[in-house]
Design brief:
394 residues, disordered N terminus, 15 helices
Length: 394
């Protein structure tokens, strides 16, 4: 471990959006900031106001948040925040040892210039799974290609959140010399814990899932998540069996596919078996009531919800893409499947239905994996090593 690690005492987190907006990137930025602060690191988050009511200054979780006002919308607002971020870093360089940018958007370019001029260490977190990652999306626009060319010149350390994208970038000529660091998201294993038996039964009762093997999806209902296709697979299982399976599917989230999924549920006559819960800020009741977490995406980075489910003691049924390939040991804490293979998906679902205790056994293993590899404490320890210029532990 680097001797410099103990000397990291101040970090600037730069994010276009932040708490109380809590998408995947925002949640990780918040939890990392809180975990670093708990270790005595002085953390400042620099972000934009969500709206006029957002406070310009706030202290929360042991760290401070600075929110700059918006200017118009779209490109004008992005350029304004990019400029403000550059000026903040440039004129406050003495306050920070490391600048950590969440997602490789335009503020990352401003941060790279300011850090280069003021001699600060810079990390940029790349988001998204292969195909919908920030590098691929950036190649599709002129501005995006300019940004990638700039990163190739500036050479910030790039945090890559799953091995699939990491290996792909390593094979790309434009990124062969990039300073890539394989990393991962973390989860609060103290908050997300397996419930006691009585607690689980009460949670199932509260969600009307007593005696039912309960599958759970948590996330945005967009086409690449393939939740509608998962519902279609459930419909086929119900249609193919003479006995009605003792199962329930809980879908927590909202998005452009929500209406189509509701229509599919109604058309298949599955209103009693599939429930769309909408967006929920508090997810613990769902993790406690569920048995198997599902992630049928065709492309994925490293799902926060999957890690929370694993930490809560759920088995995982996920498509064989992105971070799930590293988090799920086939046949141990879950099953992986080809996102475009309906048959493979159904076979794994039927295994859980035929042997309900399988989910319990796999859920216990999921908890072990979450604690040993993905706990926020472990992730923070590795991040401090990266801040100091080293590499995270294997």
């Amino acid at each position: 471990m680097s001797d410099e690690r103990e000397g990291i005492s101040s970090v600037l987190m730069l994010s276009q959006t932040f708490y109380p907006a809590l998408g995947g990137s925002e949640k990780q930025a918040f939890e990392l900031s809180r975990s670093l602060a708990a270790r005595g690191v002085k953390v400042t988050v620099y972000t934009r106001r969500l709206d006029a009511s957002s406070p310009a200054y706030e202290e929360t979780g042991g760290f401070r948040v600075l929110r700059t006002a918006r200017l118009g919308s779209g490109l004008i607002d992005s350029a304004w925040f990019m400029t403000k971020a550059f000026l903040h870093i440039f004129f406050n360089a003495g306050k920070y040892q490391v600048v950590h940018v969440h997602l490789a958007s335009s503020p990352a370019v401003a941060a790279a210039v300011a850090c280069r001029l003021r001699g600060l260490r810079l990390l940029v977190k790349l988001g998204g799974g292969k195909g919908v990652d920030e590098v691929t999306l950036s190649t599709r626009t002129f501005a995006g290609r300019l940004k990638l060319a700039f990163f190739a010149w500036a050479k910030p350390r790039l945090l890559v959140m799953n091995k699939e994208v990491y290996d792909w970038l390593r094979s790309e000529p434009a990124f062969r010399d990039a300073r890539l660091v394989a990393f991962r998201n973390g989860v609060d294993t103290g908050k997300y814990t397996p419930p006691l038996y009585a607690e689980k039964m009460k949670a199932k009762e509260d969600l009307d899932s007593e005696g039912l093997l309960t599958f759970l999806f948590v996330g945005r209902l967009s086409p690449e998540k393939r939740v509608r296709e998962f519902v279609e697979a459930v419909a086929e299982i119900f249609a193919e069996r003479r006995d009605r399976p003792a199962m329930r599917l809980l879908i927590v989230g909202s998005g452009p596919e929500e209406a189509a999924i509701r229509r599919e549920v109604k058309a298949a006559g599955l209103e009693d078996a599939v429930r769309l819960e909408g967006r929920r800020d508090e997810l613990l009741p769902y993790y406690r009531a569920a048995d198997v977490f599902i992630l049928p995406s065709e492309s994925e980075g490293l799902s926060n919800s999957m890690l929370e489910a694993m930490s809560s003691g759920l088995a995982v049924l996920a498509s064989r893409v992105g971070g799930a390939r590293e988090a799920v040991a086939e046949g141990e804490n879950g099953f992986l499947f080809d996102p475009f293979s309906r048959q493979e998906l159904k076979e794994h679902m039927l295994k859980f239905l035929a042997e309900p205790s399988l989910a319990v056994k796999m859920g216990e293993k999921s908890r072990q994996v979450a604690v040993s590899r993905y706990s926020m404490a472990r992730v923070t320890e590795d991040l401090l090593e990266i801040y100091a210029g080293g590499e995270p532990a294997a």
